[in-house]
Design a protein that fits this description.
alpha+beta, three-stranded antiparallel sheet, 9 helices
C-alpha cells in the first residue's frame, strides 16, 4: 500500500492517509517460533480430547509428557475467544480476557451478531463461559441452533459456516442480520 519512492507523497503523508503508524513501515513481524507453534498444536490436540482442561490441568498433562511450561504461559496460549466465519476464515470478533467469567464471550458474541448477523448454527466448545445462560440465551432467542460437539465441525459442517472459539475451540452459517435481530 505504501510506495517508498512515490514522487508526490512522502512516507509520512502516505501513513497519515492510510491511518497507520510510520513505525509500522520498519517493523518486521517475527511470528511465533517453531517451538511455540508445536506447543500450541499440542495444547489444541489435548483440548479437543479434554475440553474441560483449564490452564493448571493442561500444565500438569504437558509436564507428564516432559514439556516444561508455566501456568501463565499455558493460560495465555489457551484463553482466547474468537467468533469466526468458518468458511471464509474471517474473524468476526475476538476478546482476550483476564477473567474467567462469561462476560468476554458474550461481548464478542454480541459484537459478531450485531455486525454480521446470526448463523444458522453456532458451534462452540464446552467451556463454562460458552455454555452459560448468559451466552446461550441470546442465540436461542434468535432461533440459532447451538452445537457443542467437535464431530459436527469435522463431519457435518456446511460450507457457509461461523465458528466460535473459546480457549482453543469453534461457530457456523450466517443468516441475514434482520433474521437474527
Amino acid at each position: 500500500m505504501v510506495v517508498r519512492d512515490h514522487p508526490a507523497l512522502s512516507l509520512s503523508r502516505q501513513c497519515r492517509l492510510l491511518t497507520i503508524g510510520r513505525s509500522s513501515l520498519y517493523d518486521e513481524p517475527t511470528g511465533e517460533s517453531a517451538e511455540t507453534l508445536a506447543l500450541m498444536r499440542r495444547i489444541d490436540d489435548l483440548f479437543l480430547k479434554s475440553p474441560f482442561y483449564g490452564a493448571r490441568r493442561m500444565v500438569l498433562h504437558l509436564c507428564r509428557e516432559g514439556v516444561r511450561i508455566g501456568r501463565g504461559r499455558a493460560g495465555r496460549l489457551m484463553r482466547l475467544e474468537a467468533i469466526m466465519d468458518w468458511a471464509n476464515r474471517l474473524v468476526l470478533a475476538w476478546r482476550l480476557p483476564n477473567t474467567l467469567d462469561a462476560g468476554f464471550c458474550t461481548d464478542a458474541r454480541q459484537e459478531a451478531l450485531a455486525r454480521y448477523g446470526g448463523p444458522e448454527i453456532f458451534n462452540t466448545d464446552q467451556g463454562s463461559q460458552v455454555t452459560s445462560m448468559a451466552f446461550t440465551a441470546r442465540l436461542q432467542a434468535a432461533g440459532i441452533r447451538i452445537s457443542m460437539d467437535g464431530e459436527f465441525i469435522a463431519i457435518r459442517m456446511p460450507a457457509s459456516s461461523i465458528l466460535a472459539e473459546d480457549e482453543v475451540g469453534p461457530t457456523l452459517p450466517r443468516v441475514p442480520a434482520s433474521a437474527a435481530a
